[in-house]
């Protein structure tokens, strides 16, 4: 089945085009380019015209109404670094745009196997003559700084002059929306052009821009490869460079025009040396060879990340788009991470959250573990800043990772639903532990993960205290951002208990391997014993009256907010109700305890999960895109497969249907990871245990089956589930332990395993 997303003869409205700018973005984890029209839009349209480099940022003022101690007054902001997209086409002096009279067959295709995005249309001149124009884009997975646009012009019956104007702007403004707290509210010029050069001999433009505060430099280089019918004409050079190619177009003739752009930043490259080297590398191969390498990269990716269902074509399109967006979004160098909107837009100002570790990293852990290892490495690179953050918040030891960041500084301005979410520490630790269980990668654990787990554990002993025999954690916020700064958030306390128990379990391994960080941090046996004691004494609030786990000490004492009686236009509530109003009620923005039921399912029996699920489901608005996928997974755990499917269908298609009405600001990257979780951890019932990979499948009525591939302990497994049997085979690797339902075997390349599907459990 071809992995494509297509839009045909779509409406040329501002709303639709901004949505498509996101959906048809091209990215590779280092650079991201929104799917803007090369020729631009009419003047009355609003466009988020953007090109981004992952991890490149400037620092903006973040005004606090009352500047109390420790409140950040600066924030890191991802930059719209340049505009190399602009290409204007003129035929006999008429500008060719998709908005012209008589334009037809306007199509867009995102080819997720070839790694290209195509836009094409038939344009009619004032004389009635027609040409087909297409623009094919690629951000290279094999040479990360490279972005290409191939323009193809085919004459049906047009004869006349052709002029192509290629523009290169070295700085651009960020998009702002002061009415949405998820977007930047102020317009600033973060970049200033330091140097503009056009090399006539190489026909190459180079612009270097410098950030105002963070002292980073961005260099963009642009050059072209054109058909023989075109000749270089006018070159205009100021702070931007505009290059014109002129020629003649005749009937039946095709003109090709290729624009190559290279993006380099001073965090990763020596701009004086590396730019020229990259230009030479690109020019050594024709564009078709770069296309071939792109296709080969994605062929490997799709073999490792294969995932599909039988019986729902739209879902498969969404699944493909979700996984493709994740590989486009993930930083692959240890310097960058995964922003909440990937590299598709400026929502949340390019910040990295806990979304990476809980929602997106499991996908990479099980399909592309080398990328997961780089995401752990990134957290290690900002560990020192996490230590500094802990001191700012009054902790004498340990590290506290910032809630929102790019390079390690806290960029959350509203601490109750930001900095107070200390659970980010245990989320990062959880992902490291899961990664180690799934891969056995001891090197990553010893070099990066172990030190993170120790330092974040030290924070818990400093932040918590004993209340009698109970260890408690006060004044923190859990995942539910409609309930802030509470005592003993259940999710947080349970996650911390899990982390501390695992550190105790890993400590003998660290000693055996003589891990460098043990001496560096002066870890003692007594310290490990203290972690064990705190974990054993951890307080987990429970209501005997209601027979459910309490979200925190005070949650069940509040009045219930009747969310079913609120007007539909009042959602999401965060845009229409004061935070204090929400905090005073039993209402949840997203899964909190229900998330704990998923991540720590071994800590609960099914009946307890059922009671808690039923209670908290009625209180949850799902205003966060992180919520529905978790409710789907846990519905599967308790055996309500059809409810699980309803939640899954809602969450899996958020972006391709724009159901949250804000995809125009960027993809919901975490929800895309949640879509993977919903199928693999939900309907397939996969769990990564300490000594085995576990499957407990439950399929909805609409599907006849599903299949996917995972990498476990270095072995590539292929799993096919239908309503007759489960078939697991090993494609590469050494034997591994596998448990299906309650039966355990050692799976090897020589021995497939087929087991009957259990319809009733």
TrEMBL record:
<protein>
    <submittedName>
        <fullName>Glycoside hydrolase family 65 protein</fullName>
    </submittedName>
</protein>
<dbReference type="InterPro" id="IPR005196">
    <property type="entry name" value="Glyco_hydro_65_N"/>
</dbReference>
<dbReference type="InterPro" id="IPR011013">
    <property type="entry name" value="Gal_mutarotase_sf_dom"/>
</dbReference>
<feature type="domain" description="Glycoside hydrolase family 65 C-terminal">
    <location>
        <begin position="686"/>
        <end position="744"/>
    </location>
</feature>
<dbReference type="InterPro" id="IPR012341">
    <property type="entry name" value="6hp_glycosidase-like_sf"/>
</dbReference>
<dbReference type="GO" id="GO:0016787">
    <property type="term" value="F:hydrolase activity"/>
</dbReference>
<dbReference type="InterPro" id="IPR008928">
    <property type="entry name" value="6-hairpin_glycosidase_sf"/>
</dbReference>
<keyword id="KW-0328">Glycosyltransferase</keyword>
<dbReference type="InterPro" id="IPR005195">
    <property type="entry name" value="Glyco_hydro_65_M"/>
</dbReference>
<dbReference type="Pfam" id="PF03632">
    <property type="entry name" value="Glyco_hydro_65m"/>
</dbReference>
<comment type="similarity">
    <text>Belongs to the glycosyl hydrolase 65 family.</text>
</comment>
<keyword id="KW-0378">Hydrolase</keyword>
<feature type="domain" description="Glycoside hydrolase family 65 central catalytic">
    <location>
        <begin position="321"/>
        <end position="676"/>
    </location>
</feature>
<feature type="domain" description="Glycoside hydrolase family 65 N-terminal">
    <location>
        <begin position="13"/>
        <end position="266"/>
    </location>
</feature>
<dbReference type="InterPro" id="IPR017045">
    <property type="entry name" value="Malt_Pase/Glycosyl_Hdrlase"/>
</dbReference>
<dbReference type="InterPro" id="IPR005194">
    <property type="entry name" value="Glyco_hydro_65_C"/>
</dbReference>
<keyword id="KW-0808">Transferase</keyword>
<dbReference type="InterPro" id="IPR037018">
    <property type="entry name" value="GH65_N"/>
</dbReference>
<dbReference type="Pfam" id="PF03636">
    <property type="entry name" value="Glyco_hydro_65N"/>
</dbReference>
<dbReference type="Pfam" id="PF03633">
    <property type="entry name" value="Glyco_hydro_65C"/>
</dbReference>
